[in-house]
Each structure stands twice: as structure tokens, then as C-alpha cells.
Amino acid sequence: MRTGWKCQIGMGPPVPGMGDRTMTCVHNRGYSFLILTQPDKVCYFAHIRLKESESFTWPERERFTIERAEAAAAKIADHPISDKVAFGELWKKRTRGSMISLEEGILKHWHSGRIVLAGDSAHKITPNIALGGNSSMESVVVFCNHLHRTLAMHAGARLSRAALNSMFAAYQKEREPRINEVMQFSSMLTRLQAWDSVLLRFLATWVIPYQPDQRIADQMGELIRKAPKLDFVDVGPEFAKGKMARRGKCLNEDSKNKK
After folding, report:
1. Which candidate among 56, 104, 139, 211 keeps its CA 20 to 30 Å from the CA of 230?
2. CA dihedral sign of residues 225, 227, 228, 233
3. Strand pairing partners for 111?
4. Quick one: which H or E segment has residue 44?
5. Cα–Cα distance measured from residue 146 to residue 206, given in angstroms and rounded to the nearest whole number
6. What is the DSSP letter of 50?
7. 247 Cβ partners below 8 Å, 6+ apart?
8. 236 vs 61: which has the higher pLDDT
């Protein structure tokens, strides 16, 4: 796990000029903003690039004091997040706020004895595109598939340490390529929004804004449709198909669709 970013997070009351059901992403050199609004609150994230000398790897960790969070917020307070609002106004009116480290990476070992990891405890990605929660659910799906098959092979008997170790290893092996793909995609977006290189700034300001919205949706759809499915759950007839077909089949999906 490597930490190359820190994140100013918080929430507060609605702010005029930000809307009440919007998601706003603002780019800048070295940092970016993500603001989510609801009728009764606003949540925000400021993803800030660490200097190379400030980056570190696990098991080293860093805890930020409120004084350091205040100092970091002051550096970006004047940056606009809409036509009428600057980030400092959100931070000043916050009801909750802090700064955290953002880790990226995949652990080499996910299991020991009868304990196995899933989600952020095994793999962590930057949150700009909110794929961390999805990835956690995908890991649980894959683990459940392996557990269901293993229990069926052992006729429901208590699993031995060797059987568990084999199942845990197979689960990790299946998940690693997929989570690496998602992590690389999310990392690229985080760097793109923070103009982490001349090329990424050019793409962010002169190429992507002129792409049709459908193309971006298709890229996300292609990533999501490859997600694993529970292979032992019966899919009912009410489970409608989307515009983009899923990769792989769920239990009885073909027979249900033919009826």
C-alpha cells in the first residue's frame, strides 16, 4: 500500500449557488474537488497530491491534526468550486471535517489461518470515482462463490485448515486481476483531475470536455459490466436486462429470458 494523496473531507449545511442534487468535480494542478449536494446538506472531498518526499508506504501511517487540516484548507480556500462559491466557504461552514491519507495498492497476503480479508482491508483505491465500495462488494461476491462451492464439495462438513487455505488462495487469485484493473482506472482518473502531468492536463482540459457524454458512460459501463456475479443465486424474471449486457451469466438467467 502506498500513500501519495491526502484528502480534505467534510460536510455541512446547504450553500446557495451549489444546487441541491448535484455532483460537481473541479480540476486544478495538484488537487481536485468533488462536491455532492443534497437538499439538507453538502459533502465534499478535496484530493491533494503529496510531494514525492511526503509519500510513504504501509505499514507507515500518518494522522493529521485539526491544525494541519486547517492549514491545508487555507491553501486552497480561494479556489472556486462554482461560479459563486469558493472552497473556503464550505470549510468555514462545516459541521464535520478532517483530513485523511489516501492509500492505494493491493496486499500480497489476504488470509491467515481461518481469517480472510475483503474490501479496503485487502485492496484500497482512490475515491474520486467511488469504486471502492463496488470493489468491496465484488470481493464479497467472489468469496461467497468460492465458499458455496467448497461447502458443496464437503457436503456441509466443517472445513479443515487445508481446505480453507486452498479456498482463500483461489479467492485472492481470482480477485487480483480485476481489482488491479479497477485500481489503475481510478488512479488514472485521480491523476487526471489533479493535472498530474502535462499530458494529463491536456487531456483533462482539451480532449475529455469535447467527448460525448455517452462515450464516458460507455467506458464506465464496460468496466462495471465485467463485475463478478453470485453464481448460485437464482435470477428471477423481474431481473431486467440493461442497455449494456452483463459479462457472464447468473444462475438460470438463460432459461428465465426464454420464457
Report:
1. 104
2. negative
3. 116
4. strand 41-49
5. 45
6. P
7. 225, 226, 227
8. 61
Cα separation, 9 vs 17, in Å, equals: 20
Q: What is the average pLDDT score of the chain?
A: 90
Residue found under cell 491534526: 65
- Of the two residues 139 and 15, the one the predictor is more confident about is 139
Cell triple for residue 173?
487469485
CA distance 178 to 188: 16
Quick one: cell of 178? Answer: 480485476
**φ, ψ dihedrals at 28, nearest 5°:** -165, 170
Q: What is the pTM of this model?
A: 0.87
From 62, 181, 185, select the one nearest 126 (Cα to Cα): 185
Q: Which residue has the cell 448460485?
A: 232
Q: What are residue 34's DSSP bridge partners?
A: 25, 45
Segment 132-171, tens digit of pLDDT: 999 999 999 999 999 999 999 999 789 999 999 999 999 9
Helices (H), ranges, 52-93 = 66-76, 87-92
> DSSP characters for 149-200?
HHHHHTTTPPPPHHHHHHHHHHHHHHHHHHHHHHHHHHHHHHHHHTT-SHHH
How many angstroms separate the CA atoms of 129 and 173, rounded? 25
What radius of gyration, in Å, describes the C-alpha atoms of the chain? 22
Task: Please give the full DSSP string across 205-241, using - where no structure is assigned.
Answer: IIIGGGS-HHHHHHHHHHHHTTS---TTSBPPTT---
Only one residue has cell 500480497, namely 108
Question: 41-49 and 31-38: which strand pairing?
Answer: antiparallel
